[in-house]
Amino acid sequence: MSPASVRLPGDPPGGRKAVLVWSVGVAVYFVAVIFRTSLGVAGLDAAERFDVGASALSTFSILQLLVYAGMQIPVGLLVDRLGTKRVLTIGAVLFTLGQLSFALAPSYGMALAARALLGCGDAMTFISVLRLGTRWFPARRGPLVAQLAGLIGMGGNLVSTLLLARLLHGVGWTAAFVGSSLAGVVVLALMLLFLKDHPEGHAPAPAQSQGLAFVRGQIAAAWREPGTRLGLWVHFTTQFPMMVFTLLWGLPFLVESQGLSRGEAGELLTLTVLSSMTIGLVYGQIIARHHTARTPLALGTIALTAALWALTLGPFGDDAPLWLLILLCVGLGTCGPASMIGFDFARPANPPERQGTASGIVNMGGFVASMTTLLAVGVLLDATGDNYRIAFCSLFVLQALGVTQILRLRRHAARRERERLVASRVEAVHVPA
What is the model's pTM? Predict the structure, then answer.
């Protein structure tokens, strides 16, 4: 019996109300992803608006992700302490103000501050949605619920590449970004009206004292679990190739290096998002039924994306055929679903009262890798005179580092997970009916 199929004592029942409440939380995450990825279709416009080069342009996304990554453990602790609704409310207010400020920013410095504010609010969404899923659905549904959340988030990316891109070139910078910020107001209202932290009768245990010693202990306990560390490295290695491509450098690469029009490049970015949404459903079903497939899926995704990038950058350089660019974009779509596997390693490794903290640690991985690669690509483009072939080779360095750590931790994590599974079965047997 896999860990995903075990019904733990006190498991929430799920049902229609769970779907409704969870959907409201996911809607907040959906809007956060729209705002997060909006720069991906506006990168060239931003460079013209603020008169900046590649390194300065990458700073927008780097700062946003730096704030996001730095907030993950504090947000995890806040979710464990305050609950989902309060943290999501704060996040929605911050990312809406960030998007609105970015629309109206008169200078590069003000625009940077706006992206940092957006990153802070964005940081509060996904961990909260993961926690909402564990509070409203049975543990055996965890992998599928998490993949669905990621899939719907990819829908936000799709809105950026399709709708926001058209608005940007139709009504202009200010109107497009101000108009998009209204979506934040809508989901904030829905959340205040309908969101609840947990179903009736499934309230968590009262929070313990949140002194500094407790916080350090919470973080240390989550980190000691090999499943948490393995989850971080899986997230680190799988997420960033797609994130770097869709968040900032995909459109410039396809237009300036490969000679496509903006319309053609936008269609390929859309293909990446659609691929991710489709594959997310497949990965979720596979992992829910076969928990042992987690590591092979993660390593297979890494190998696939590395091979496609090597083929694109190696033999063809700045003249890759369209069929290969299509394959690259479809392959990059596997990265988002594969990164969700990281949470499937951390979830069974930690008790409910530590889920937010553990998820925060895992979620740092991909965003630290994305931030590092965004910076490396920008610096290398400036240093080499916009040689995308050299700049994108930085991806392979981080992939090699991540694979090394995954291979090192996987057996230790599997052994520890089996021990926890046995303990949970014993507990279930001794719980009175």
Answer: 0.79
Residue in 157, 152, 412, 424 with CA at minimum distance from that of residue 284: 152
**Nearest residue to 132 (alpha-carbon basis) of 116, 152, 118:** 152
Q: Which residues contact 411 (CB under 8 A, 6 or more apart)?
A: none
Question: Using one digit for the tens of pLDDT, what is the confidence trace for 374-400?
Answer: 989 989 998 999 899 999 999 999 999
Token pair 């490794």 is at which residue? 349
The residue count of the chain comes to 433
The dihedral built from the CA positions of residue 401, 254, 386 and 173, taken in this order, carries a sign that is negative
**The tokens of 61 are what?**
């996304």
**Is 253 within 8 Å of 388 (Cβ atoms)?**
yes
Statement: residue 29 has pLDDT above 50 = yes
| Nearest C-alpha neighbor of 158 from the set 38, 263, 76 | 38
Buried b or exposed e, range 239-265, using 16+ CB within 10 angstroms = bbbbbbbbbbbbbbbbbbbbebeeeeb
Each domain of the chain, given as residue ranges in start order, spans 7-194+211-430
* Pick from 7-16, 114-123, 223-232, 280-289: least confident: 7-16
Q: Output the DSSP codes for 169-197.
A: HHH-HHHHHHHHHHHHHHHHHHHHHH--S
Q: 258-284: per-residue pLDDT in tens? A: 999 988 998 998 899 899 988 988 988
Token pair in block for residue 134: 């564990």
Rg (CA), the chain: 21
* Pair 133, 146: CB distance under 8 Å: yes
Structure tokens at 220: 């240390």
Amino acid at 262: R
Query: Is 3.10.450.50 the CATH number for 7-194+211-430?
Result: no
Contact in structure between 68 and 122 (CB atoms under 8 Å): yes
Q: How far is CA 258 from CA 317, 325, 381, in A?
A: 9, 9, 15
Average predicted confidence (pLDDT) for the chain:
87
Query: pLDDT for 37-68, tens place per residue?
Result: 888 778 888 888 898 888 888 888 888 888 98
Q: Is residue 381 within 8 Å of residue 391, measured between CB atoms?
A: yes
Kindly report, residue by residue over 120-141, the tens digit of the pLDDT: 999 999 989 988 888 888 877 7
